[in-house]
Amino acid sequence: MTDRSRDALAVFATGALLGVAILVNYAVNRPGTFGLNYRVYHVAAEAALAGRDFYAVTPADSGYHYVYPPAAVVAFLPSALAESWVPGFLAMTAVSVAASAVAARLLAGYVESLGYDVGRLERALLFAFLLASAASAPSLGYGQVNHALALALVAGFVWLARDREGRAGVALAVPAFVKVFPAVVGLWLLRRRAWRAIAAAVGTAASLFGLGLLVFGVDTTRTYVTAALLPQRETADFVGGLAPGKSFVTLRRPLSVVFPNVDPVWYAVGAAALLAPVLAALYYRPRTVTDRHVAVHGTLVAMVLAFPSLLLYYAYTAFSLVVLLYDLPAGRGRQLFVAGALLANVSLSYGTLRETVRALPLDPATAQAILDAALPVLRLGTPVLWGSLLTLAGCLVYRVESGALSVPAPLRAVVGDD
């Protein structure tokens, strides 16, 4: 077994094991978590069939509202044919399993097309990782659509690499249309000058938006923009510093903690300002396939870190994360990348840690000591944030090691620029 395979297995196995632990915790301590999001889809579909405002309804046991574009509710209309949300949730779970299986097959095939072997154990653990990693497990439990959207991103980038730009554009448009912030992948399409993919993506998004407008009308579309889309900026959560219990993975978190008294809009500006030079460096003259992979990884990580994304959206980086576990050459860059991938598997917020510590057989003093020690660290950032930044550092160091970038003399010993 090669070192590349060992690294990949370590990341896949630890991620899947931690994810299974999350699902077990839900089953034992928080059974109401299962179907939490799907119940929202179900009542929205019922309202849509009845001709009512599906942005105004909430499940009886939660205050969550439907926040996707009007056209997306069409996918959930079959759920409204059953009185209970459970059949639809089970169907959504089956879709997530199938999406993870297809994504695993696409990724394994793509990695092998680069000249690396992906054995049966690696394929099995890759599937487990995509389905139930610490980042993916919550979506599986909630009945979220993220597995399907992660598949769309994987398929889009695989097709883009194979010069099937039309297909790639359609696939990449779907998560951007549903969740909006994945539209950041358009930066890489622009850098690559993938004009057919851009045209296909814009056409797909416009067609879906038009479908919602045609089927549900102007008023519903306006409600989506004003009551669902714009409030998702969630700037109020960052006023005075993001609370440590909030499950966000974003550079806005440390900025809000360090600068608690500034207007939250500046956290968005600050996150973009920090990520822009990283992307510029990774986009600079990509000469090899690996260069393009690290540029894609920079794009996907920036997509997650620039916005107030939840921890579970780290799963959207699957394409470049998996590919680079095989494709990055040996060196300091690879070491940093693998370390970051392992750290990012620890999908933990202070709220989750507090819940976990209280469930353990610890005396109150010991439990409080653990929480007090972790609070300053988790207030500033989650392991997913620090792990993501480490993977970006690994990509930058790789580009220096490959000779694509030069660094000042005092840093050469650190990054290995000989």
Automatic annotation (TrEMBL):
<feature type="transmembrane region" description="Helical">
    <location>
        <begin position="89"/>
        <end position="111"/>
    </location>
</feature>
<dbReference type="Pfam" id="PF09594">
    <property type="entry name" value="GT87"/>
</dbReference>
<dbReference type="GO" id="GO:0016758">
    <property type="term" value="F:hexosyltransferase activity"/>
</dbReference>
<keyword id="KW-1133">Transmembrane helix</keyword>
<dbReference type="InterPro" id="IPR018584">
    <property type="entry name" value="GT87"/>
</dbReference>
<protein>
    <submittedName>
        <fullName>DUF2029 domain-containing protein</fullName>
    </submittedName>
</protein>
<keyword id="KW-1003">Cell membrane</keyword>
<feature type="transmembrane region" description="Helical">
    <location>
        <begin position="7"/>
        <end position="28"/>
    </location>
</feature>
<keyword id="KW-0808">Transferase</keyword>
<feature type="transmembrane region" description="Helical">
    <location>
        <begin position="123"/>
        <end position="140"/>
    </location>
</feature>
<dbReference type="GO" id="GO:0005886">
    <property type="term" value="C:plasma membrane"/>
</dbReference>
<feature type="transmembrane region" description="Helical">
    <location>
        <begin position="336"/>
        <end position="353"/>
    </location>
</feature>
<feature type="transmembrane region" description="Helical">
    <location>
        <begin position="168"/>
        <end position="190"/>
    </location>
</feature>
<feature type="transmembrane region" description="Helical">
    <location>
        <begin position="197"/>
        <end position="218"/>
    </location>
</feature>
<keyword id="KW-0472">Membrane</keyword>
<keyword id="KW-0812">Transmembrane</keyword>
<feature type="transmembrane region" description="Helical">
    <location>
        <begin position="296"/>
        <end position="316"/>
    </location>
</feature>
<feature type="transmembrane region" description="Helical">
    <location>
        <begin position="265"/>
        <end position="284"/>
    </location>
</feature>
